[in-house]
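Lab notebook, bench 4. Still working through the backlog of constructs that have no structural model yet. Next entry is a single chain of 135 residues. Request: give me the structure tokens for it.
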Amino acid sequence: MDGLPSLPSGRLRRVPTLVNANHIPILRFKKPQPPFLSYIIRKKTDEREKRVDKLQALEKSLLFAEDEDAWDTILRKDHRISNDKGVQWASAVRDSYMNVKRVHQTNTLKRMRIAQRMFDILQEQKKLAEEESLA
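Model written out:
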């Protein structure tokens, strides 16, 4: 096989298990999992949760920003008070929301690609283990 080492005779190949740890694909070779792996899973989960929380907060902020834009329109029309910069509140919040959403989607796609590669490795390992057990 491509790049997969063969084992010395008499040894059995240990096929890993593909697990989903809080939406993070992991190839586990043994239990219990190493503390460093737990740390990585926890760190990645915390990052994802912060992004989701940020998206939810920005959705709420967008409502307030749209109200601010409506108020600015009233001030501009009725009282001739204008915003010198011409920047709307909602557009700034919307831009931030889209940036965070883009990062979140990119990371989700990256995890999906990694999971697919891990699944392919798992299939190759199973095939090799089967061939080695017959030999």
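Notes after review: Residues 2 and 124 are 10 Å apart (CA to CA). The mean pLDDT is 88. Flag for follow-up if needed.
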